[in-house]
Design brief:
Blueprint (H helix, E strand, L loop, with lengths): L27 E11 L5 H19 L4 E3 L3 E2 L2 E2 L5 E2 L4 E13 L2 E11 L12 E7 L16 H16 L3 E10 L8 H11 L3 E9 L2 E2 L15 E12 L5 E12 L13 H4 L2 H21 L5 E8 L2 E4 L12 E11 L5 E7 L4 E6 L4 E5 L13 E4 L1
Parallel strand pairs: 8-9, 8-10
Antiparallel strand pairs: 1-7, 2-5, 3-4, 6-7, 10-12, 11-12, 12-13, 14-15, 14-20, 15-19, 16-17, 16-18, 16-20, 18-19
Helix pairs in contact: 2-5
């Protein structure tokens, strides 16, 4: 469950780094980082927790890993110092080394003992591109509060920024400027058409399920206090393979946060006023979690590309430097055949080509390749697939 990082500054960076003391044969290192969060309604414990989580997250990102889950925090010290981290590292221990209160904010500095893992994904060196569209709103009537009818156009931009900041193995390559209904394997033609048009391997489908309002009940003991209305944010997101339409990952988020504006006040979804409010910060936290979880899901999946030209025993493929491809990389050629199983489900069959190819020249989003053993590249066609070996 996502806890809104109320007023957490998302531009927090690692401000102190010490690769010292414990450099050993196990590739261990101490990393120090500082996170900062606003103290909302005098809740120091929540601010401390948010700042500590962000400090740990930033240290792990800097060390080449990212947080999958942060365990319980009590009294500013991690109660359980075991964290599960994606692909490239793990934490042995975390220590709180400093805490400063200033101007309504709390700064927390931590030291994390991070070990490199020996086992890494063979295919994680290539980044996977995703294409998405504007996010439709299930109940448009809910958008009348605040006049936030264009929130579905803004969310993909925020999600793209979160991928840029937090993802290591994937990125949103393009946002198509139109709405689509929630995509599934049944929309195979639409899924594959989107992926092909954007030159992306995966399609990210998102829909806003709920942005309704709720007025909290006043406490009988604090009847004189005005409590802000609460606004929901329900967000359903799925990732589908752009070649086969197979659903790779899906999750529905449901949170609520204070709505800091008058019910009858129009709020510009492109303004910083919204995204610096408690509700906006809660949504940004969801976007961050989507980027991290999708990136983790895709991290060990093969990265595919397409053959876009065959000429004189040389191939052009639609992946290049931006996806992490390098001169000398070896690629496997294959074709994907689809069929229906006895239950009527679409399945994929992969036919591997006996000859591999080696990258000869690399460009931003494309590369040229030739046969690795100088054999003739027979029966290779445009739209055949390649993956790194």
């Amino acid at each position: 469950m996502i806890r809104p990082l109320l007023k957490v500054r998302l531009t927090i960076t690692v401000i102190a780094l010490q690769i010292s003391l414990l450099i050993s044969s196990a590739n261990a290192a101490w990393f120090e980082s500082t996170g900062e969060a606003a103290i909302i309604n005098g809740n120091i414990e929540l601010a401390r927790q948010n700042a500590t989580q962000e400090a740990i997250r930033q240290a792990l990102l800097f060390a080449g890993a990212s947080v999958h889950s942060v365990q319980k925090i009590a009294n500013g010290v991690l109660q359980n110092d075991d964290l599960v981290i994606r692909a490239t590292g793990e934490v042995n221990s975390v220590e709180l080394i400093d805490e400063i209160h200033h101007d309504g904010f709390i700064s927390v500095s931590v030291r994390a003992d991070i070990f490199s893992q020996q086992k890494q994904c063979k295919t994680s060196s290539l980044a996977k591109g995703l294409v998405t569209t504007w996010s439709p709103l299930r109940d448009k009537q809910q958008a009348t509060t605040g006049q936030v009818f264009k929130i579905g156009e803004k969310l993909p931009e925020l999600l793209q920024r979160s991928f840029t900041q937090y993802a290591q193995f994937s990125y949103i390559s393009e946002i198509m400027p139109f709405y689509t209904s929630a995509l599934s394997s049944r929309n195979l033609e639409q899924v594959t058409a989107l992926a092909k048009k954007a030159n992306a391997q995966y399609v990210l489908s998102a829909q806003i399920e709920d942005i309704g309002m709720r007025t909290p009940q006043k406490s009988a003991w604090k009847f004189w206090e005005d409590q802000p209305d609460l606004r929901q944010f329900g967000y359903q997101v799925a990732v589908l393979d752009g070649f086969t339409g197979t659903k790779v990952w899906q999750k529905t988020y449901q949170i609520e946060a204070p709505w800091d504006f008058n019910r009858y006040q129009a709020v510009d979804v492109g303004s910083s006023r919204l995204w610096q409010s408690q509700y906006g910060e809660a949504i940004l936290n969801v976007m961050m979690d989507v980027a991290i979880q999708v990136d983790e899901t895709l991290s060990c999946l093969p990265a595919y590309g397409r053959v876009i030209q065959v000429q004189n025993e040389q191939l052009m493929v639609n992946i290049g430097k931006n996806q992490g491809l390098k001169k000398g990389d070896e690629l496997q050629l294959f074709q994907v055949m689809q069929f229906h199983d006895p239950q009527g489900q679409i399945q994929a069959k992969y036919n591997l080509h006996p000859t591999s190819v080696t990258i000869e020249s690399v460009y931003a989003n494309s590369a040229s390749a030739v046969s690795s053993d100088n054999t003739i590249l027979a029966n290779i066609q445009t739209n055949d697939f390649v993956s790194i070996r």
